Amino acid sequence: MSRRQRIVFAVVLALACALPFLVSNYRTFQFTLVLVYAIALLGLNILTGYNGQISLGHGAFYAIGAYSAAILMDRFGVPYWATLPVAGAVCLVAGFLFGLPALRLEGLYLALATFALGVSLPQLLKYHHFEKWTGGVQGIVITKPDPPFGLALSQDQWLYFFTLVVALGLFWLARNLLRGRVGRALMAIRDHPIAAEAMGIHTAMVKSITFGVSAMYTGIAGALGAIAVQFVAPDSFNIFLSITFLIGIVIGGLASITGALYGALFIQFVPNIADELSKAAPWAIFGVVLIGFVYLLPAGVAGGIRMALARWRAKRQNI
Questions:
Q1: What is the reported pTM?
Q2: Helix (H, G, I), strand (E, B), or coil: what is residue 141?
Q3: Torsion of CA 249, 35, 289, 15, to 10 degrees
Q4: pLDDT by residue (tens digit) across 95-131?
């Protein structure tokens, strides 16, 4: 990381830390969800943007993570922070096992398989034999955690800082993975799978592990989302959630770590703004805004920023 990048990161981090003291608790809750979605989008971007595997069912892993946290907190009294590694581990195994048979599928066929997963899981959560654990259609209500050590923070402020720390750790881990040999292997499989195989990359194993790691990120995000919202129910994790995640990585920028944050801001705030502009047809406005983003920023927000910075540097060199 260059000196300029470190300065920018420090400034952004300082603003992020000051944010909950400058806005209301509701806005703080919304920005907590932005961090949650950013983690989920980063997980999906590792799979789709860096490895080229299209998933339309990551909402299912988000639901698995959310229910893992909710069940552990509600049925067993596990502390909220201890549910995150469990949710991540459960989704890591689930994603890896799902990725093994999915290796036989490519492109649209893989997308359809993941779409089936996203459609079927909410129905499984309603199954009467699972109601003892999942709460059936009524779901599970959990308690929002109080700040520890007597900190003078509201519940929403504390959860925001907790989520921020988790997000920073996961983004740092993803950056180290994707900027090294692992990232080069993922992109080699995405761009030239036969050449990657010829260079000695075990494509089948790498793709399965990538699916598992991607699901792990999304599951941790689901656990954090459940703790923030204080409620889980099957209808909260319908197929539209998976499609929303895909929209987020496209808008933010494929194969971009920072793009996950831009995409999370989009999927959290643009629907709310559209609803405020028109109560009659909010999704029509959302569709128009989405088309505008795709048309004006075909490489996503992160790609647009990179292009703008490249042009600015070129102009400075020519001066």
A1: 0.96
A2: strand
A3: -120
A4: 999 888 777 777 788 888 899 999 999 999 998 888 8
